[in-house]
Design goal:
Elements: H1 4-49, H2 55-68, H3 71-79, H4 88-112, E1 116-126, E2 129-138, E3 147-156, E4 159-167, E5 170-171, H5 172-201
Antiparallel strand pairs: 1-2, 2-3, 3-4, 4-5
Helix pairs in contact: 1-2, 3-4, 3-5, 4-5
């Protein structure tokens, strides 16, 4: 006769094994889901960019970028240790201006690589993020080196979102953080905002 403790041990072992298998499956599925989400959103953005520019198209582009990029997370990460020193009003102002700058830059980059062949490579989990690697190669100058663009993605509000873009090894967040730190140390937060608004309106 099998003793009760032995049965319990076998049951717990089975549960743990099933739990581990489920977690492993989720870990494997997450990079694929992030990659698929990115590809689908970029395809929709590309189709919109093929249309003539007008207010309606720009509004649709804005909504799609809101669905793709975690602007609030990007703002906090870009501000680094200075984020904790900002008031709620300052955080809101900074996030809104940065959003407009990033959105404009992202659109510009998408338009610039429309004449490039973009291939989606590996997607891999690193810590709490998934990094999706892409390469863009010019269709007009095949000898030109490919541009490597890696997208760092996380689940935000139950959806995948881009939280950082690394182009040929250069991190958007790290570059912003370094620039913002220098400007805040020299000119204060108000000086940073003045510079950012000037760049937005320039």
């Amino acid at each position: 006769m099998t003793r009760l403790p032995t049965l319990l041990l076998a049951f717990v072992t089975l549960v743990l094994a099933l739990g581990a298998s489920s977690a492993d499956a989720q870990n494997r599925a997450a990079p694929a889901a992030a990659k698929q989400y990115l590809e689908q959103r970029h395809a929709r953005l590309d189709r919109l960019l093929d249309r003539p520019a007008n207010a309606q198209r720009d509004a649709q582009l804005g909504r799609l970028l809101d669905d793709l990029i975690a602007f609030d997370a990007l703002a906090e990460a870009s501000m680094g240790t200075h984020w904790a020193d900002l008031s709620a009003s300052q955080r809101s102002d900074f996030s809104e201006v940065l959003k407009q700058l990033v959105e404009r830059s992202y659109r510009s980059n998408l338009e610039r690589i429309k004449d490039y062949d973009v291939t989606y490579g590996d997607a891999a989990r690193r810590g709490t993020s998934v990094f999706v690697s892409t390469q863009a190669r010019s269709t007009e100058n095949r000898r030109a080196p490919a541009v490597t663009i890696d997208y760092e993605m996380k689940i935000v509000n139950d959806e995948w979102r881009v939280v950082n873009v690394v182009t040929d090894g250069q991190s958007l967040v790290e570059n912003y953080r370094s620039q913002f730190h220098t400007l805040i140390e020299r000119d204060g937060f108000d000086g940073l905002m003045e510079r950012m608004r000037g760049r937005l309106n320039g």
